[in-house]
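question for whoever is on the cluster today: can someone run the full assembly for these? two chains, 445 residues total. i dont have access anymore since they changed the login thing
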Amino acid sequence: MQNLGIDVLFKGSNMMRLLGGLWVSLRISLIAVFFSVILGVPLGILMSRNSRIIRAITRLYLEIVRIMPQMVLLFIVFFGTTRVFGWNLDAEVASVIVFSFWGCAEMSDLVRGALISIPKHQYESAKALGMNSFAVFFFIILPQTIRRLLPLSINLVTRMIKTTSLVMMIGVVEVLKVGQQIIEANRTSSPNAAFGVYGTVFLLYFIGCWPISMLSKYLEKKWKND
Amino acid sequence: MNWEVIGSYLPLFWKAMWLTLQIGWIGIAFATLIGILVAIVRFYKVPVASQIAGVYIELFRNTPLLVQLFFLYFALPKLGIPMRADFTGAMGLALLGGAYMAETFRSGLESVAKIQTESAASLGMNKSQTVWHIIFPQAFARSVPSFVANVIFLLKETSVFSAISLMDLMFTAKDLIGLYYKTTECLVLLVFFYALILIPVSVLGDRLERRVRHAEFGD
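^ ran it for u. tokens below:
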């Protein structure tokens, strides 16, 4: 009881290794966020148009992402596609593909929601002032959309970071896996290391995500009544 | 694709699905309970309890369930608290869900317009009447869409239970893939069973949302 395994963190380069592990999941989420934004924004704009075919296809896509746990998607890409197509896929690449697929759906839905939440009179008033449709989009719709979109997209980043913790289940060595390794390596010298290490991982995630969600909350409040 | 293999794996997945459902529903029921209590504490700004609830919400909303489960399952026993896997799963889900549900119900409570309280007061209702007959029904009606989203989110999150060696759908699939290398069949069954759990929830949720929509007044 006297030793809760905090000391393990200060042995050798254990703390640096944990942070390195965190960077792995952070890197995956940042790349996935990048692709989600690049692909999700145009898709969202496309979805806000009233085309029946596009709506049917994107609805299916969104429902699949909404229903299927990200873990299942990871398994399908990492174990399924490699088996069916016989290629060799790195676990990290598989994670990026899955989280981009998921993030793109989330992002496009946010963009669509933000676009259709702009009241129709905004378009009409701008037109009445003699703006062409390009000017209407860039000077009237876009600024308002971004204000509605940004807090929600920032929120998506924290969700992405949290969800990338799943990648350890397909064998990516990220922070939890490094934690496991440290605990295993110190099993005899420090049998209670699990408490210190997992407690630290818990706090690391919190320290990483909390400021981002605070920022999202702050922006949402600030822009709410504009 | 080998249908015989699928047939022989079916009972295993069926059993695993029941485990997922059992733990899932217990977790979600407690999450709802925690959520309502914490939301009320936060909304009425009960001193001390409100601050504790705030810390709880931020801690559990900003960490992944997988990390929470690892902490509960592997770290707490080091403090002399024995943990069972299924109990840990339900508890983790309840704690994570409670934090999300609390935010859902709180924003539901906040969305009830002030004029509703004032009108109730001018009709001669006392405080508890106002809360029970005016505020709560509207607040819950407004919370429904976000509540349904949370339930789906939590059911999806149960897929990480395999990390603490609960024999759920994910665990069964991974185990069978590792043992017999029938990857395609296992993945098809995995998708099928998750769809079996989540599509009815999604459809029921949509219907529920449509039914309670009439309960919204006063913007």
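summary bc i know u wont read the tokens: DSSP finds eight helices and no strands in chain B. Residues 3-43 of chain B form the longest helix (41 residues).
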